[in-house]
Amino acid sequence: MNGRLDQPLQSRRALLPRPHYDPESFGRVSERIARFLGTARFLVYMTGFVAFWIGWNIFAPAPLKFDPYPFIFLTLMLSLQASYAAPLILLAQNRQDDRDRVQFEQDRARGERNISDTEYLTREIAALRLAMNEVATRDFLRSELQQMVKELDGERRARS
Length: 160
Prior knowledge:
Largest sheet: none
Mean pLDDT: 89
Number of helices: 4
Helix content: over 70%
Radius of gyration: 41 Å
Structural class: mainly alpha
């Protein structure tokens, strides 16, 4: 150890290389497993497996029994399955939470854009309404022209 805190430690060479895995593919596999563990099909398969195991170890001839009555090996197998299933289910839930969080952020950003677009369009419509009040309409022009025609007729009659 060099004793200096302003410099990083020298990397030590590991005796065994660290295993490398792709967390994304591992996550997808864990989601598939977790999705299967949450189905009725899995419960039916597991129930059939346990029933067969118990039936075999109760009714099979003595030399063929491999797990006598307290079914210690079956308990070990079920505990092992549960010890792997729980973290896989948690991993799948964490990945779903991450996807939900990203979706929520995208929805919020989309909502903010929609609100700003709506406010912009509202301002534009208000500006158009104000501009329309200043624009001469067809009826206004018609009435002005009729009034001018009457004035011209009055002037022509006055000359003649």
